[in-house]
Amino acid sequence: MKLYPLFVLLSLFISFTLCDTQAEQVEGFFSQSGHTNNWAVLVCTSRFWFNYRHIANTLSMYRTVKRLGIPDSNIILMLADDVSCNPRNTYPATVYNNAARVLDLYTYYNLEFLEKVDMTSNATLHDLFQTYDPVKIASEPGIRSDLFHRPLDKVKVTDFFGNVQNVELTRQRYPLIEETQQQEPNDTAIIPPPQQHDSALPQRHSFHVQPHSLSFNNATSVFGCLATLAMGYLISKTMTT
Questions:
Q1: How far apart, in whole angstroms, are the C-alpha atoms of residue 65 and residue 114?
Q2: DSSP code per residue over the chain
Q3: How far is CA 3 from CA 11, 14, 111, 194, in A?
Q4: Beta bridge partners of 76
Q5: For residue 6, what are the CA distances in angstroms to 10, 20, 57?
Q6: pLDDT digits (tens, 9 = 90+) for 42-84
Q7: Do residues 48 and 57 lie in contact, with contact meaning Cβ atoms separated by under 8 Å?
């Protein structure tokens, strides 16, 4: 009974150690550039036609993240209303986001920068934040650094808003076969010459039954069996009488 508390403490210590190790591995994976596990969650809770700009902004962000490499399988898009099918929409099944309408200026200028970025761009988040103009946005944009600890000038826009995998091309040949297998042995093996077969002769298989003539030995064995049976028959008759 005294060993039970020690066993519990040891189990808790091992579990905490494993949790810390896994957390460090996950944090190290996502802190690197080039990982391809980005997800985009786009939510618009605004309804009705007068909130057209909110839905247009959300769909514009959807277009941007998909263009930068995030597939539909990694995008969660939720819209509270479908303005593309609204009877007031002059262009059915389409939604436009342009400066001529009353739009969210902060989202608009973000999209204006992102439209100039493609999957091969080296622009960073620092470059994006440097484009913020309080006069154009009509507000003071704030940037939080407690949720994302990586340096902004080291994070590409495609790493944050996209899903681009880095591929390194090398000119060196990968050794698929070990060097020991590639080297020929010193002792050359003697290979027997291939057997010559006459292709003109037909090939016989086991299922081909060839007729055999009755030979002298076979006839002798048959007569011997008959003689044995006859002698047995005579002996049995003699004993019965």
A1: 9
A2: -THHHHHHHHHHHHHHHHHHHHHHHHHHHHTSTT-----EEEEE---SGGGHHHHHHHHHHHHHHHHTT--GGGEEEEES--GGG-TT-SSTT-----TTS---HHHHHHHHHHTT--TT---BHHHHHHT--HHHHTS------SS--S-GGGSBHHHHH----------SPP--S-HHHHSPPSSPPPPPPPPP--TTSPPP-TTPPPP----HHHHHHHHHHHHHHHHHHHHHHHHH-
A3: 12, 17, 64, 75
A4: 41
A5: 6, 21, 59
A6: 999 888 888 888 888 888 888 888 888 888 888 899 998 888 8
A7: no
Contact 116, 83 (CB under 8 A): no
**pTM for this structure?**
0.45
Residue 179 in contact with residue 143, Cβ under 8 Å?
Answer: no
What is the C-alpha separation between 76 and 96, in angstroms, rounded?
Answer: 21
Q: Distance between CA atoms of 189 and 128, rounded to whole angstroms?
A: 70
